[in-house]
């Protein structure tokens, strides 16, 4: 779940975190560092781990979300550096979860279910 560390966002996230946990099990948070609350406080309030923190960088984020023009040195911006690190952590977590859940049924080499109805 992606959450900003502002009071309003944290209050809104509390119930959503609980609902997600009921549906999918353990979750973690990707924190957007816009507000005053540090990752440890967010973790304590939401009672889920903060997996990584991205800087609040709306101009750089617009490149990714809206296709805004890419500024010079965009790939080396703090947002993109943090995104690279965060993506590695997210992939590791997904692989661990996938391994823990195990296979759900017969699959072909391409990952398609072979006995779909």
TrEMBL record:
Domain of life: Bacteria
Protein known as: Uncharacterized protein
Species the sequence originates in: Streptomyces lannensis
């Amino acid at each position: 779940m992606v959450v900003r560390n502002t009071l309003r966002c944290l209050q809104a996230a509390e119930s959503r975190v609980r609902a997600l946990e009921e549906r999918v099990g353990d979750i973690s948070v990707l924190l957007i560092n816009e507000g005053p609350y540090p990752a440890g406080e967010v973790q304590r309030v939401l009672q889920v781990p903060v997996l990584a923190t991205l800087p609040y960088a709306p101009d750089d984020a617009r490149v990714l979300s809206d296709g805004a023009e890419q500024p010079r040195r965009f790939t080396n911006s703090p947002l993109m550096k943090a995104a690279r690190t965060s993506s590695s952590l997210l992939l590791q977590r997904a692989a661990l979860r996938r391994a823990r859940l195990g296979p759900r049924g017969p699959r072909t080499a391409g990952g398609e279910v072979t006995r779909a109805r």
